[in-house]
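Researcher: Structure for this, please.
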Amino acid sequence: MKTKTNDKGYLEFVDSGKLIHIWKAEKKYGKEKLKGMHVHHIDGDKKNNDNSNLILLSKEDHYDLHQYENKKQLLSGIIIVLSITYLVILVIAGFIIPSLKSFSLTIMRMAIIFILIVAIELRYNVIAGAIRRPNERVFRE
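Model: Predicted structure, token format:
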């Protein structure tokens, strides 16, 4: 069957317009279990309709999960911008004021780099991409 990407970024069948992730979830869980539930893409990729990437969530849990992810993205973005800004200021200050080139400046730089690593991990899930949040309720057969 031919598929296309709709205007919201989801894959759908060309002939019926049915969303593929809904169709796959119906096959995985049965139509009855889908009533009143939302199908969520675990990795956030609307085109990844692999069975292992689809879970059922209540409307409220699905909304809460996306709110959590949006807040995490915003917070980590702010942390990244502030950390880079502070690191740049420290580097510039180190060149302008030679007496700042001390052990304490090195410790501050290391702390900023550590904060950046944590913020990047929060934003992009480089290490923990597969870890589910505690508020996800997965319905299994």
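Researcher: Any notable elements?
Model: The first strand starts at residue 3 and ends at 5. The beta strands are 3-5, 11-13, 37-41, 54-58.
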